[in-house]
């Protein structure tokens, strides 16, 4: 299943009870909303491109091989800083609720403050 988003798209690679794996493609010069989740934590493995992650109060560079832990309830965002290459991340979600309804947006470049979906 592939879902288009204003920042790019994601594809669900697999899921089960308490886990889900997605492939995120963040388009050049785009970023997803500053958000948090009440019911899940995430691990990101960067497989292509370069960018910046905000996790809590920290800003971390993203490049192939980087692994980022996003604890449950912590504000986070990934931004693609490249103008030509998509930022590609494998996201592993762990928790009780792994749906898009668990996306709580704080800031969004695309005017989606009232609807879930990253």
Description:
Helices cover 0% and strands 55% of the residues. With 118 residues, the chain is an all-beta fold. A 6-stranded antiparallel sheet has the order 1-2-3-10-5-8, with no helix packed on it. The mean pLDDT is 94.
Write a brief structural summary.
By secondary structure, the chain is mainly beta.
> What's the helix-strand series?
EEEEEEEEEEE
The number of helical runs is 0
Percentage of residues in DSSP E strands: over 45%
Shape label: globular
Q: Assembly state here?
A: single chain
Tell me the strand order in the biggest sheet: 1-2-3-10-5-8
How confident is the prediction overall: mean pLDDT?
A: 94
Number of strands: 11
CA radius of gyration? 13 Å
- By secondary-structure content and strand pairing, the structural class works out as mainly beta
| Biggest sheet features | 6 strands, antiparallel
Termini, distance in Å?
A: 16 Å
Share in helix: under 10%
Segments where pLDDT lies below 50 for 5+ residues? none
